[in-house]
Design goal:
With 106 residues, the protein is mostly beta strands. The chain is built from one helix and six strands; from the N terminus they run αββββββ. The chain has one domain. Helix content is 11%, strand content 41%.
Length: 106
C-alpha cells in the first residue's frame, strides 16, 4: 500500500525553511518503536537528533489535519512544530518550550 503523505525528512525540511532555523544536513529517517515515529539523523545545529511523529492536529476551524510533530532541540530553543503531512511545507504551529529566566539563589 502506497503512502499518500510525505515522509519525516520532508517535514524537517519544511520546519527549517519556514522558521529559518540554522540547521543543515540531509535528514535520514530511522524508525523508532512507535508506529510512524522516526529519529532524523544527519542534521547539524541541534543538541540532540530531531524526532518526527505522525499525528492529528485540530485546526482552529475544527478540522483535523494529518501532521508531523517535529521535535527539535537546539539548546536555546526546544521546538515542537506541527507540519502538514501532505505538503511538508505548511507549518500549522510551533511551541518553544525554552523560556528565559534568571533566579537569585539565597
Amino acid at each position: 500500500m502506497k503512502r499518500s503523505f510525505g515522509g519525516a525528512e520532508k517535514a524537517i525540511q519544511g520546519v527549517t525553511k519556514s522558521l529559518g532555523l540554522p540547521l543543515s544536513g540531509e535528514a535520514i529517517a530511522e524508525p523508532l518503536e512507535e508506529l510512524e515515529s522516526f529519529v532524523l539523523k544527519g542534521i547539524s545545529g541541534v543538541v540532540s537528533e530531531p524526532t518526527a511523529r505522525l499525528t492529528y492536529l485540530a485546526k482552529p476551524d475544527g478540522d483535523l489535519a494529518l501532521s508531523w510533530k517535529v521535535e527539535t532541540n537546539m539548546g536555546r530553543s526546544w521546538l515542537h512544530s506541527y507540519v502538514d503531512a501532505f505538503t511538508g511545507s505548511e507549518v500549522y504551529g510551533t511551541v518553544d518550550w525554552v523560556s528565559d529566566a534568571s533566579y537569585k539563589v539565597l
